[in-house]
Design a protein that fits this description.
Keywords: Signal. This is Lipoprotein. InterPro entries: Pectin_lyase_fold/virulence. The protein is mostly beta strands and about 950 residues long. It has ten helices and 62 strands. The strands form seven sheets. The chain has a 27-stranded mixed β-sheet that branches. It is elongated. The two termini are about 65 Å apart.
Length: about 950
Amino acid sequence: MELKNLFKLTALSTALAATLGLAGCGGDINISTGTETTTPTTPTTPTTPTQSAQELSYSGFATKSSTTVGGKEVWVLEGTLAPSTAASTITTGGQDGDLIMLGDDVVWQLDGPVIAGGDNENSIELSILPGTTILGGSDSYLVINRGSKIMAEGTAAEPIVFTSVEAGLGEEGEAGQWGGLVLLGNAPVNSCPDLTNCDASFEVGNYSYGGDDTEDSSGSIKYVRVEFGGFKINDTQEMNGISFAGVGAGTEVDHIQIHLNNDDGVEFWGGNVSISNVVLTENFDDSLDWTNGWQGSAQHVYIRQADNGSNRGIEADSSSDASASPMSQPALANITIQVANGTNSGGDDAEGILFRKGTGAHAYNVLVKGDVDSGECLEINDDTTVSNANTAELTMQNSLIDCVEPFKDAKVDATAGTTLALDVEAWFNGQDGNLVGASDLTDYMPNSSSVALTGGKADLSNVDARLENANYIGAFDGTNDWTVGWTTAIHDDVDTAPAELPVMTSCPVGTTASDAVAGLYKDSSVTLICTLEGNVLSNTTLLAGQNVMYKIDGGAVLVGADKSTSATLAIQAGVKLFATSNSYIAVSRGSKIMAQGTADYPIIMTSEEDVIAGAEGERGQWGGLVILGNGLTNTCPDKNACDASFEVGDFPYGGNDNTDNSGQISYVVVKYAGFKVNDTQEMNGISFAAVGSGTQVDHIQVHANGDDGVEFWGGAVNLKYVYLTENFDDSLDWTNGWTGKAQFVYITHEDGNANRGIEADSSSSGASATPVSAPKLSNFTILPGTDTANASGDSGEGILLRVGTAGELYNVLVQGRKGSTAETESGECLELDGSVSSLVDNVNAGTLVMTHSIIDCNEPFKTSGTTEIRTETWFLGQEGNSASVVSITDGMPAATDTTLLGTGKDLSTDDSFFESTNYIGAFDGQTDWRQGWAFDPQ
């Protein structure tokens, strides 16, 4: 399909010439039909035609098109490229014997299959200069035959781009618009019994590949982008972005991207080639696929799938014949797979990794993140592969699975012919350094608090010389983004505008549908109510829609059964949920909640009154959210047989696993919860009962709760970006051995309707009850209410540390109301209560510390229960502390402030959970992290 056949001088081509831009070439597209003539200089002496530099360089192996694109001539390659005995024509590009060089001074077009060299004869080296663009038509692809080489070495600033004619002309690029790149080598494949006489047939074009040379070289591919390829030949044959068939270890491949391919991104048929710094985005079938004995390596691979458009991140085979040699057994390291939601048009679910057909592998530092509607993230099946897993031919270490559906087991199935079963979760957890928990990413990059940054396997080069040391999990180290500058569709060229929520016509499985009564709800766009009640014993997803709300009804909605039946309640970004007066959500031990909102589409959990027309949201109108985990709590002497009873509903919690994973709560607002059971039992906005650090909690707000905002009973769950507003009792409360971390917490009170900003306990049994509460906190701003009693007789106060707690507090600002009476000023802003003597011991031992903090209150300090310590002396005697006057507006200091800004402690150098800060309080004076998602109580 030549460009000259696409365009005639019509209004369409004229418009294209005026408006379209060429991807990868820069500048505007200019399309010329080549019909101009040369006017003689005189009537009798015509100008003698001369060849251009491009004609001198390229005429020996390519054909000049009559079209120009982006101000450059288009030269067409077709058929077989062979050596030449003519004199060298290389200027920018050209040919010299068996070297053919494609220059960047023109645009290249592939017309049909273009084959470099013959099969181990008439070999050539096809060199492609940095910044060169190659366009492929609908039936076009490029093959590098055995014995020939491709030397495509771009740069980050000037990548080499293989794309479709349509995309090159500024039209929309789509999968399948051309073929792809095929490399055929002489390395071993297990489809050849005799490797010295191997002619395996490639699936498209019947080209031969394979041999006995593990070190064979097919050249070098660096900073190369292949996009919109994968045309379909029939139902079983489609082109991959780059196909490596029997390619040897002498081939160098790094910094490649395959984007929007209609089949696999990269596929290997045997061989020993290694790849690194690979980006595979939105490919239709499998992003990374191997079979027939691939024994190379892959490191620093980023895979992002397309919702309703991809199958597996990795599909790994060796051979259906268990005796076929060599066995596929690559080394894999530092791979990030973002699994999509849904099913592609071929009916395949989006999934993570499938090991099957007898493959082996040694995988390190792999991160797989699944979403609410992703398929399984790690699966092993068939007997030979199970045997490899059992004999350490297939291993996976220092890897992280963060998925709603993390594992799929191999099962005995007479119909499928399998006789061996494998508990994949147990296999995974039984190997060194593996984790199942929250990955804590922003897009694909781990946050400073992510376990991925510290959980990787070190000294990889000692394990396999082909790998470089990278002791973090996933493709990225949290700082260096090696994709910048040469990739497409993951940086500035991505439309980041939020998609509109869909209109739903039915409710998800697991909920009951009813039509919204006209005029009943404040939001008149709501037409569908989906009710969730009872015991949720199977995975259930609450889908977001612009016309739907979810009703929590009938008392406790219990997710899963305690440590027996695991279930996941997934809640999509944008879901609005309301609860009736006696209802709440509780997540059992072993089950998960995956409430994954966004800044654009937070998840809202509120009361029925808050959504009904004519009613108003108030404290205590529903229960709240209860998470029950397997973490440590000091109420259980025997952590291996722990069944502590939650204060409402008697649900059991606690265990021996402080890394336990109860899911994710991000961008979630909980309003008007905390109903009262009796005088001593009231629900908190969010209750964390022995919840482990594998749970991800960030960007949460609890507003106007009838009891505490957030409370912890033991466990080690961490929090970041927490907004607690107008809660009745304590905004942040811990007891029974909480040892988690929190950063960026902003607490405000309603005058006369609050008690403490922080109430901190461990155990009345003192130090003998272990673990001792010892959280690590940084960057808090607390604005306590006035010293007037709430309905329970408690006044507005700042921080109370008591009942034997330990802990570390840094960068804390407490600013009380200022005035001369209880009605106009706050109560005490920092109190130590030594009634339980172990608190005094913690102060003296330095296990309860507070530094780089400011107390700005009329009643700054109080000491109770002891005469051995004085709160004021303790506070002012520590580094960076002061009782100073500060100025803030809605929690935010002025950008020119010097009291709060620049005076804080940076915890990130010692603890990767904490983001780097040098200021006191929850805000840096510039960025308001509440913006866009939080409820404004004013």
